[in-house]
Design goal:
Elements (H helix, E strand, L loop, with lengths): L15 H13 L12 E5 L2 E4 L4 E4 L2 H4 L8 H13 L11 H13 L6 E6 L2 H16 L3 E5 L8 H6 L17 E4 L13 H15 L5 E6 L15 H11 L3 E5 L24 E4 L10 E6 H4 L15 H16 L2 H22 L3 E7 L2 E6 L9 H13 L2 E2 L1 E3 L5 E4 L7 H16 L2
Parallel strand pairs: 3-13, 5-6, 5-7, 7-8, 8-9
Antiparallel strand pairs: 1-2, 2-3, 4-10, 9-10, 11-12, 12-15, 14-15
The structure holds pyridoxal-5'-phosphate (PLP).
Amino acid sequence: MSIEQKRNLVTSIPGPKSQELQKHRLEHVGHGVGTTLPVFIDSAHGAILVDVDGNQLIDMGSGIGVTTIGHTNPDVVKAVTEQVAKLTHTLFTVTPYSPYVEVCEILNRHMPGKFVKRSALFNSGAEAVENAIKLARKFTKRNEIAVFDHAYHGRTNLTMAMNFKNMPYADGFGPFASSVTHVPMSYPFHDPAGMTGEEAATRAITYMEKRIGGNNLAAVVIEPIQGEGGFVVPAPGFLRTLSAWTKANGIVLVADEVQAGIARTGKWFASEHEEGFEPDLMTIAKGIAGGMPISAVTGRAEIMDSSHPGGIGGTFGGNPVSAAAAVAVLKQIEAGGVLEKASHIESVMKPRLLAMKEKYQVIGDVRGRGAMLALEFVKPGTREPNSAAVDAVIKHSHQNGVVVLNAGTYGNVIRFLPSLAISDELLRDALDVVEAGIASL
Ligand SMILES: *Cc1c(COP(=O)(O)O)cnc(C)c1O
């Protein structure tokens, strides 16, 4: 499928056909399933979405960092088409098939750390996190889990307990899983001025020692760059110091790479940006299969093998069609050029975002890595969250055909997760639209 990589609006947003479909949807789809932008998408390619009214929108969200490789990437389309005509299901734990093993092999090869690795496949990021915790508890014979302020790990019962935000993820959905404790995160923009990563780690470690006890912790779970929390990049030294402490205390360190992993930040995994940070397990999902649902836990063989046979699995986990798509994505990254593209996007976007920060007092912080960049909005002259500004800029962007997403505990962050297939020209066009939205505040 070829779609011209150009923004083009032929109706107002949402157009009449989208409005009609949205009405229909509200009659039939449960209202707890929200919508950021009620525009119905008919097709997509690269970084362009085409809606049912014929509008072409620039996708700066990639379905929350999922179509990293680009919409309808030809290799993914081919792999899926071939696989779907050959075999769609056996249940891997009944009778296995090769694409599952191939995904595991490639992930094992690229996870950082000089130890023997194994992987297991699931359907969603939350399911991967759940399984990482099952394995960490089985391996350590301990119960307690530590997670960080502003974290996001999913929508299942256990992961609801691991998220920081009550609304919209948890409100009224309890009771929640026990044995989960939130710990102070390194958040350079809001931490005391000059606080180093090591100091922020000591703050978190002291908290865990006092509140839980290192000997009771099965796992510490951390996003190396927080996703929903607002692309919070911990200060240098934070992850490394945390890693040394978990190792010394026999705690399984889980890097939740669901949003930041798989080429998004210019490396296979965001964990690789800090030397000395050595997770034992990683959870992987979103960007791994070009939009097909599949997730993984990858990590130390002795932890991955600690479950009795049959303890880990699920009916659809590592589905052959999704696995074939994942192989196609992973092989493209191996072939070269993809990681470089993420770094290139950073080199185009970051100077532009920093220039906006100089110009507009509502922008307090610019942060992120690779094609995972964000603006934090504040009330001018303060560090107080300004979600009204974010709402206005997002509304302006949507009306002008640029799909951008918010993030952050206070909803005061605009995050950019463009496809790595995006051209410089489209990126600039999208940023022009966003900047016009900020200028009009
Ligand atoms: C999205 C996300 C999850 C949950 O993934 P789902 O596929 O929606 O279950 C977990 N962790 C992080 C860091 C995420 O961004």
